[in-house]
Amino acid sequence: MKFNVAYKICAIVVAVGFSQTLAQVAPSLNLNSMLQYPVVQLFLSTDVNNNLSIEPVPAEHALLIQFLEDRLDLRFKIERLPWKRALSKAIAGDGFLFGVSKTKERLQVLDFSEPLFEDHAWLVTRCDCQFSFKTLADLKNKTIGIVRGTSVGEAFDAEANKSFRIEDDTDATEARFIKLDKGRMDALVFYKRTAISREVLASDLNQRYAPKRENKKEPVFCVLEKPVATISIHIAVKKAVHQQLLQRLNEVIVSARFVSGL
């Protein structure tokens, strides 16, 4: 049975009053409160806007992290890093990594939690440059933007820079959409929860990232009809490290699926 653990957990968290975002909570974790609980390093990827400011952690991620802290009786020491560096730090054994998918290479060096949620990997284009996408063969000779170091599923990864070209992007989402608007790529890959519809995603992306053009009300960016892949998202840690905590984490995730009949 398919499920979206993140949204189920978020509903539970809201019900018990954990409604603050991580950005609001982090400053309140003073030294005295941190000393009351074990502290665990947790790496999250950054999203830098054009003002060179780091975007807040998405609310659903913040709620999930708070829920896990409460159930595990610990506090996560959050460190925001570019994705590739955050992945390298986890592989080196410096802490846990939030928001990572499984690949053959990663499975050799990391242990993964139970799935937290599922993401669709969508292709986003300029609306005046849409193309039909049904299989990876439709990407032949096209340029696709992905964040450096990320995976879009085994099939896509295997064809990258073979039948289609990869445009390596940074974690800066706003800058990625500027590149797309200027025609430096045919499409970019954008991850979003499976619970969010393509139409809602397109509306949100245009509201946030479409350039302001005089007398132009039509959407600038369109989301193609079929996702490239559907990927389960996890917390991961270096193999053979923190195994007891990983086991407890998995127990919390699994039990959350059945709370209140969910």
UniProtKB/TrEMBL annotation:
Keyword line: Signal
Keyword set includes Signal: yes
Signal sequence region: 1-23
Q: Does the keyword Thylakoid apply?
A: no
According to UniProt, the name of this protein is Transporter substrate-binding domain-containing protein
